[in-house]
Specification:
heterodimer, A: 125 residues, Transcription Regulator spoIIAA, six-stranded mixed β-sheet, B: 203 residues, alpha+beta, 7 strands
Amino acid sequence: MEPIYIKATISSPEINFEPDNNVLRITGESYPENSFDFYAPVISWLKTSLQELPELTLDIAVTYMNSSSTKCTFDIMDILEDAHWRGVKTSIIWRYDRENERSYEMAEDFREEVLFPFEIEALDT
Amino acid sequence: MGQETRGMILQWSVSGSDHYDSTKGDDMNLYDLRDEFNKSGVMMCFNGPFCHSIIEEIGKAMRNHLAADNIAQASLMEVFAVYIELAQNVRNYLTLREITRPDVASSIITIGRRGEGYVVSSGNAVLNADVEMLCSRIDEVNAMTRDEIKIQYRKQMRCKVKPAALGAGLGFLDIAKRSTEKMTYSVRDLDTASKFFTLSAYI
C-alpha cells in the first residue's frame, strides 16, 4: 500500500497516514483555493487503501473548514461508511476546539451522519 | 503574483496607527475615503483583483486585528468563516465566468464593526445574465428558518458536485448558519454586460 503525506499550508491541513496503527490524520485548517482538487488524492488513496486495510481510524483535528472542505469531509466519511458495511473496522476521532462551541456543534452534526464509531474529543491546545 | 497583487490594503486600528500601502498616485484624496470608512465602521478593506494568496493574507491580518479587539475566539472564527465564504465565492465566480479584465475583475471586501457585532461585505462584477439567479438564491436562503438551513445544508452535502465546479453550493447556507441577521444585497449598473453586486453578512 502506498503511503500518503501532504504538507500543511496556511489554508490546507496536513494529511498523514501512520501505517503502524492504521491512522489517517488530517490536521490544521482547511480552506484551500480548490477543495475538490486538494482532497482528490486523499479520496482516491482512501478508496484504494480501504480495499486492503482491515481497519482505519480517521483522526481529524481541523479547527476551521470552509463549506467546500465540509463537503469533501462528508464524502470521505461516506467512503468510510461504505467500507464499514463491507466489514472494514472504520472509526473517527473528531477533535474540536474547546474555545469554539461551533466547532463542537459541527462535530455533532457530522456524527449524526454516520453509523460507525465516532468519538468527539477536545483538542489539546 | 504580479498583476494580481495590485490593489490596496487599508487597515485601521483603534489606536489610530494608520497603515496605508498603495501603488496608486499620490494625488488621491485619502482623507475622504478614510472618513467614509470610519463613519461606516470599516476596520479593514481590500480593493483590487484578488487571488487565493491575498485571501489568505487578509484573513491572517483580520484574525490578528480581531484578536486585538478582544473578541471571543468563537466569534472571531465566525467572522473569519463568513469572510472566507464571501471572498472565495467572489473569486470562484470570477474564475468560473472567466472575468479577468482588471477593471471588471477588481473586487472589494470590507470587514467592519456594526453595533455589538461585525459586518463583512463583498462587492464584485456579476454578469447581467447571472444577477437574477444570484438574487433569488440569496432570497431563498434568507427566507429559511435555522432548522431549514440545517436541513438544506445536510441535503446539499449529499448532492454530487458537478465536474469542474469550484464550490459545493453550500456557501450561502454556511454564511446564514453563522449570521445573526439576514444577508442584504444591492445591485448597481457597472457596464452594458455586468452589474456591481454588493453583499453583506452580519455576525
